[in-house]
Design brief:
Number of strands: 2
Radius of gyration: 17 Å
Number of helices: 5
Distance between the termini: 40 Å
Structural class: mainly alpha
Order of helices and strands: EEHHHHH
Helix content: 55-70%
Largest sheet: 2 strands, antiparallel
Strand content: under 5%
Shape: globular
Length: 126
């Protein structure tokens, strides 16, 4: 069975592997400091709404210094992270119950490895 034919329950592992392969072609950090487009703002709002966070103001960081300040702000709103953590834990519980954890974690490790290689290089160039 090829990687694209493997499935873990309802998760197409080939799709996860294809996603990992696309990471190298993304233009990481190319728009850092640029104003957000309406499409980017809409995408962020849709994502936050899917996390049940309701209406949230979306704004970009003006430059790397602002991004650093924002990421280290002790007053940041952690609700998005908490929502993602709840979903992550629920997914892992579902996978463990179905005996699929090892297959899925292996596929996700490929995504993490690919992202790490690409993002570190792009970040150093940016």
């Amino acid at each position: 069975m090829t990687p694209t034919e493997r499935r873990a329950g309802a998760i197409d592992l080939g799709r996860v592997e294809r996603f990992a392969a696309t990471l190298a072609s993304a233009s990481w950090f190319a728009a850092a400091g640029e104003p957000l487009t309406e499409a980017e703002i809409a995408e962020a709002r849709d994502y936050l709404a899917a996390l049940d966070l309701g209406a949230v103001d979306v704004a970009g960081a003006g430059d790397w210094t602002a991004a650093k300040r924002i990421s280290r702000d002790p007053e940041w709103d952690p609700r998005w992270w908490q929502a993602e953590e709840r979903l992550r834990k629920a997914l892992l519980d579902d996978l463990a119950g179905a005996g699929e954890t090892d297959l899925v974690m292996s596929a996700l490790t490929k995504v993490t490895d690919a992202a790490t290689r690409v993002v570190l290089g792009a970040a150093s160039v940016a």
